[in-house]
Amino acid sequence: MTERLDPIEPSEAVRMYLAERSTEVSEATLKAHKSRLKYFLRWCSEEDIDNMNTLTGRSLHRYKLWRRDDGDLKQVSLKTQIATIRVFIRFCESIDAVEPDLHTKVLSPSLGDADDHRDVMLDAEDSVAMLDFLRRFHYASFDHVLLKLLWHTGMRTGSVQAIDVEDYDPESEYLKVQHRPETPLKNKKNGERLIALSADTCAVLDDWLAHNRPDVVDDSERVPLLATTHGRPHKTTIRDAVYRWTRPCQYGAECPHGRDRDDCEATDDQKKTASKCPSSVSPHAIRRGSITHFLTEDVPEKVVSDRMNVSPDILDKHYDRRSEEVKVEQRRGYLKNL
């Protein structure tokens, strides 16, 4: 250990980190980081670590294994947890609390094929950061409206593509999802429903329609709500936009993979390489993240099932990615007054 390191307790390092980030990130992001770091503090207490100076790559690896087993976390959830630790350790380097470059020894869990297809989702804090950036720099643009709708409604790509201007009721604040021959829904007539919108989402839609939506119709002379200068957007256009905007560097976040944006293969938008970013996700991963977020916020499963047009059994099997730790805390909240 070098002599220049200044002794500091883990709790004080976390306090300083959160104070620093409070001016850089949204309240939701700060809350998420605080929640993740409380497990790190608990681990330090259990391991009798009272000085950040003593941390090594080996001890941080032990923490990763402890966090995985303690929370019964899936790989995708563990990856998010460790990404926060990596950023925290990098901050600790800047205040001489840990050895230089220690953050490079915090290895992010790899995701296998099963994780990529079934468990990958857009995390709520990443969604907040992405939508905050779009609101600030690309307000009421095609991309802003698209990502806002996908996250807020949890709709499938085909559904958001199929909505016409006439399906939006700004007074009653809802969208009407309809099955039509030219734009069929996955569940056909069974996929038809009304989706309630927040006042904020309606405000974005209103400004999109008033100022930015191209004055076009599709090949069937219908007026699509989401439109490009060529008419109704193709599903490839939607997927490309999602991959592009779910890269952390796209909305100003630090790359969790330690890449340099100038050298990264996933930053060439002309060649549409955004999907090569390990953090970028597909539209379906936004749907999975949205459903999980609604459930985590204690929205009843029946409400989520109806809103997202997914049966309770399929919702539980393929979409609900809450950890057992989150579920037990939610159940505790219902039971504590009994």
From TrEMBL:
Chain segments carrying region Disordered: 257-284
Pfam families the UniProt entry points to: Phage_int_SAM_1, Phage_integrase
Residue ranges annotated for the Tyr recombinase domain, each copy included: 117-332
Keyword field: DNA integration, DNA recombination, DNA-binding
Domain of life: Archaea
GO MF term list: DNA binding
Extent of Basic and acidic residues compositional bias: 257-272
Residue stretches making up the Core-binding (CB) domain: 8-93
One BP term from GO: DNA recombination
InterPro entries hit by this protein: CB, DNA_brk_join_enz, Integrase-like_cat_sf, Integrase_catalytic, Integrase_recombinase_N, Integrase_SAM-like_N, Tyrosine_recombinase_XerCD
Protein name (database record): Integrase
Organism: Haloferax profundi
